[in-house]
Give the backbone structure.
Amino acid sequence: MDFKKETQIINYNPHSSTRWSKRRYLLLPAWCYRVVAPRVSSRKINILEKAVLGMCRVGAFTAVEIGEKLDIGTDLAALIIKQLLNKTFINRQGLLTDKGLKILETENLETQESVAGFIFQDVWTGELFPRFMERQEYIDVKYNNDGYPDLVFGTTGKPDYKRAYMPLPVNNIIKKQPSPSEILQAVRKHSKALRYKNSEDRDDDEDAWNFEQVPDLKRISFVEEEPIPVWLSTFIYLPENEFTSTSWNICDPFGLGDSPRLRRKLEIQIKKNSTLKGVQKLIQEMIGEYKDESGTNFNDLIQIINEEAELTVEDKLTLDIRKWDGLFDDLVAMERSHIQAKNLDNQKYLADKLDDILIKAQKTIERLFLIIREEYPTNDNWKIISQNDRKHNKSILNGIADKLGFDIPLPNSLLYVKQGKIRSASDYGEGSLRCHLLAALLTARNDSNHPLYLVAQKAPDILIRLNTLAELRDKSGHSTSQQLELSNVSQQISTVYDFVASMLEMNY
């Protein structure tokens, strides 16, 4: 038997992407190969910071000068200067510090140094985990009364023992040496994951690893031909969130937050592999719903609906949507209400649920605007809007919308939003859908890279559709003789997906 209770356990400090209410440690069997491959590196500065540092290396420049030379605007230039100052890469005179010079030289150094490290292979599928680790981090264990290892955390003087589920016996395993191209792909994916780890890093960074430029696959080699069996330590947990309290997540065993892909793979293996039925029981017990196979309860139903909602969102927007945790949760909440509405016959309850869908749909769009606002600041753009002259405002807003490529004229309910409300959205990120939409529109007029330009190409009527969503939401919050229909509300959900996908440049 390759995998035993005594097989060494590797721990790369897995951690959750959000606070957890309950968790259980799990040991995953894996083949560990020692190989030589390109070193994985993560960025220390983004491309704009690098550009500004390059200018500061030549001499001191004002935010105005930097904004003009790099064509990024004074406000963004000032923000980058502040960031570099906070990181002590430049001094208050705008000149490079020794630390800044070192960073700049390091970032400019184009190296594809090879290094010995470790890759890990799923024993049931033969697929590689998309990770490349330069060290093995074994964890101390203490064998409990059942003969199984407990993980030892804490300090020598104050140890903290954690029981971990070990799926034994490990059957139906595959032992097939991965190809050099598979190893290179794992390294590539790890590099990309590291760049995503920090929000300041950009996926399109020009100095990111360009694996297409690797000379040949001969650079990949095995230090040892035969793998060693190891257990990878991770944990399953319940998020501390009222909406997802019955849905579980699993952490990436290599310390990069949650892993939706690993969860999906584990769900597949649970259905196929009888050894893992214990994992299913572990999850159910953690949720507090485990009983024999006699039936389902209310909480079981909630879990099923939530998982269906998550799958729907992931199917429509791909797993990439999980990079925006709050937005993903909002979309799941909207879909969860939609699923419930489609299964309701009672008109009274259905009306309440349709109202709920509209509330969550609008909340989703509002959160999306706040996300976009971080990269495309909206501060002070409201100043071109008149406090009292509706005709002036109508002309300005229709003109901007037309310039971007949207259908005009815009509805009056959108054009006549008061200046003060636009200001609240622009300067403080406060307000409802229409206010955030106009704040983004006003910002886009001076920035051709704003995602609203791409949205206009794909869906020129989307501003009108978003206003329709806002109108329906307004009506649902007041007594009215107009009856909401499920089909109409479902159209608003489609609008949400269209807008999210276009703004974040996702496939939909």
